[in-house]
Write a structure and sequence with these properties.
The chain is of the alpha/beta class. About 50% of the residues are buried. The structure holds pyridoxal-5'-phosphate (PLP).
Length: about 725
């Protein structure tokens, strides 16, 4: 048979692989190798062994993993109580989620048996004197709880051609090519040998079943080779009744052999985990008898300690929890553990019950597209940003388009914009036949540099579209001066700047036209949506007409309760850009929360500032004293002259640490297509060109916790310090 052994280079895996090879099987090992290669394993060069280095959490990266596999022996997992207690999220991810996913894949790929390495520790605070497979489980540690959870989920996956088998192992002991000294017997022998003492924790009266690692490997091989119906969806306790011991008795047994050993019963908390286990089911069905005694293991371990007199058995690589702690300090790229146990997204919408209720109400009203919420949202929005008028539309892109059309801007005209912007603005201009003219950005705020605008103005220039990048308002007074001088329309792209202020005036109340976005990740969202604010009611009315196909009235006006039905007048060639009534109902609730959302963003930005400011290799955002920042994004800059890795490499490393990062934005002028159609070159906007390869946005949204921010900070430090020294 061809057998996939996850964790095949581990303490037990080494012997399982050995046993399977002895029986003439072929073995594919899938192992993270985070304890190194088991150099002492004599099968390392065996042609019947194939080694794939990988993490079960990322099995998708190995599409051929299950090819030709008959049986999966799933040993990989986060082992033992202290390691799982250190990071319960990772324990669950590895021991439950990835395990179940692996089994599901196995089943789909035609694997017939899936043998899962569980533990007798699922009996935990044992309910009953002698525990067998029918006894209730009572796991009381994260480790045993995750194993039990996985057991239950695996059993459900059973079907005619797929047999999950649960093997509940005793606590293992003895020599293995990949040695562990954090297992009770191995630890006692090594402390007795090296320190002449045995420390007994938890009182010593607790029962545990033990089994030699090689006997366990043999037991697994028996299951692997058994007839399908014998093992189908079965649970087996793996061990032997005679090997149930009280911890104190075990310590005395070892101390009696290693002369001069003192037993130190530490009077700490009583260990509540005590289980004396029955192994009759497995012993009877498989005629299983252990071959290795504790005495024999004692000799093996003593030999090991003599063979490696300079090796410290209490060093990281022999103690799982220490190794795990060490791995967390190493970048994932180098085989370490991710800083954040779960992925921290760059942005996340915040929707509450209020939004849910509002949506349901809007749906039940029957007014899905046009409706009364739109007008109400426009009014609330206008008052929130201090504008006289607001026109709700389907997106910020639509908002900008309408402003351009309303201003009579047409093919052949030119519009000034910074290249550090979202592509939709440029697309809109190009689709209108309007030429985007790029003006470089300020090296501190990355907003359009007002001092460079004038030199780009020509007779064809009709408007300027500055962008309040990340939520930092542009220098509007300076831009307005140029606009006034050349009679240009100022359309402020405030997609990021809802809630921001410029010289104590709210964004939305300053420029002739301000366009906002309510895209899912923005400071407030309507799923998709946008708004134009302005001060002229007639112009607002016309913009509404343009947004509704050029018709004077909306469906709400035509068919609503107070409507007066008459033929519709088409006033101009308009667009279909209205906001839906459902979106507006969400917007109504979101705008109420804007202040609290932005306060959280501000607090998180301050946290980043204090935690990251001492890192030389990165530059933090500049905030001019004349603005109130909306903190839509937190953009840092990697100082390329101080770092020997590219921004993209650093971004990749951070992503591996489970940190969601983004690039806002890669200069539009750098896209070959834009260079071709607009005749722009990278050197025309040198600052934008440079920062395009250096900026990086960090996670920032109101759902981030202090812990999340700490993870982001720790990940940045880990990656930067690593890069600094390599
Ligand atoms: C600066 C900027 N302008 C405009 C837009 C377009 O907004 P929308 O997606 O609402 O069309 C975005 C969207 O991310 C943006 O970041």
């Amino acid at each position: 048979m061809k057998i996939l052994v996850t964790g095949g280079a581990g303490y037990l895996g080494c012997w399982v692989t050995y046993e399977l090879l002895q029986k003439g099987h072929k073995v594919r090992i899938f192992d993270r190798m985070c304890f190194g290669y088991p150099e002492e394993a004599d099968w390392l060069k065996d042609t019947n062994v194939e080694i794939i280095q990988g993490d079960i959490r990322h099995w998708q990266e190995f599409p051929d993993l299950f090819n030709e596999i008959d049986v999966v022996i799933h040993l990989a997992g986060l082992a033992n109580d202290p390691t799982c207690a250190l990071c319960p999220i990772t324990a669950r991810e590895v021991n439950v989620d990835s395990t179940v996913e692996l089994a599901r894949q196995s089943s789909q790929k035609g694997v017939r048996k899936f043998i899962f390495a569980s533990t007798c520790a699922v009996y935990g605070k044992g309910i009953g004197d002698w525990l067998d497979e029918d006894s209730p489980t009572n796991p009381i540690s994260t480790f045993s709880q995750t194993k039990r959870e996985a057991e239950e989920k695996l059993m459900i996956l059973a079907h005619e051609n797929f047999s999950p088998v649960i093997a509940r192992f005793s606590t293992l002991f003895g020599y293995s090519p990949r040695m562990r000294f954090d297992l009770a017997i191995n630890q006692m022998v090594s402390t007795a040998e090296r320190q002449k003492r045995i420390e007994v924790r938890g009182g010593g009266n607790q029962w545990r079943p033990f089994l030699h690692v090689r006997d366990c490997a043999r037991a697994i091989t028996l299951i692997c080779e058994a007839e399908q119906q014998k093992i189908h969806n079965q649970i087996f306790n793996i061990g032997h009744n005679s090997l149930n011991k009280r911890i104190i008795d075990l310590a005395q047994e070892i101390a009696s052999v290693i002369h001069g050993t003192e037993i130190d019963v530490v009077r700490d908390d009583e260990d509540l985990r005590t289980f004396r286990v029955q192994f009759q089911k497995f012993i009877t069905q498989f005629h299983f008898q252990p071959e290795y005694t504790i005495q024999k293991a004692l000799q093996e371990i003593t030999d090991w300690l003599e063979r490696y007199p300079h090796e410290d058995p209490f060093f990281d690589k022999y103690i799982n929890v220490l190794q795990f702690k060490k791995l967390r300090k190493i970048p994932v790229q180098e085989g370490g553990e991710p800083t954040a146990p779960l992925f921290i997204p760059l942005a996340k919408p915040v929707m509450g019950h209020e939004e849910e209720d509002a949506v349901i109400q809007a749906m039940r009203s029957g007014w899905l597209t046009s409706g009364h919420n739109i007008h109400a949202f426009e009014q609330n929005f206008a008052s929130a940003v201090g504008a006289k008028e607001s026109v709700a539309v389907s997106s910020c892109t639509a908002a900008i388009h309408l402003c351009l059309v309303e201003a009579g801007i047409k093919a052949g005209d030119e519009v000034i914009t910074p290249p550090i912007t979202w592509v939709s603005t440029i697309n809109t201009l190009l689709n209108m036949g309007v030429k985007p003219v790029f003006v470089d950005v300020d090296p501190l705020t990355y907003n359009i540099d007002p001092r460079q605008i004038e030199e780009k103005v020509t007779e064809k220039t009709k408007a300027i579209i500055p962008v309040d990048l990340a939520g930092h308002p542009c220098d509007l007074d300076e831009i307005q001066k140029v606009a006034d001088k050349y009679h240009l329309l100022l359309i402020e792209d405030a997609a990021h700047a809802l809630g921001a202020e410029y010289r104590s005036q709210k964004i939305g109340s300053i420029a002739k036209r301000t366009c906002f976005s309510f895209y899912a990740t923005k400071n407030i969202t309507t799923i998709e949506g946008g708004m134009i604010t302005l001060s002229n009611s007639e112009e607002a009315k016309y913009l509404r007409i343009l947004a509704t196909n050029g018709l004077a009235d909306t469906a709400w006006d035509r068919y609503g309760r107070s409507a007066f039905l008459r033929p519709q007048e088409l006033i101009t060639a308009g667009f279909k850009y209205p906001m839906s009534n459902i979106s507006a109902s969400i917007g109504m609730e979101q705008i109420k929360k804007l202040h609290s959302f932005n306060s959280i963003r501000q607090r998180l930005a301050t946290r980043y500032f204090y935690s990251l400011s001492e890192i030389d290799e990165i530059t933090l955002p500049t905030v001019k004293d004349y603005v109130q920042h909306a903190w839509h994004l937190y953009i840092i800059r990697i100082n390329s002259q101080k770092v020997n890795k590219s921004r993209d490499e650093i971004a990749f490393m951070l992503r591996q640490e489970n940190i969601g990062i983004g690039i806002h934005f890669y200069g539009v002028h750098l896209h070959p297509y834009i260079q071709q159609v607009c005749g722009v070159r990278p050197e025309d906007c040198p600052t934008a060109t440079k920062i395009s390869d250096e900026i990086l946005s960090l996670p920032l949204h109101p759902l981030l916790t202090e812990e999340n921010i700490q993870y982001v900070v720790d990940a940045i430090k880990k990656v930067i310090y690593y890069v600094r020294h390599h």
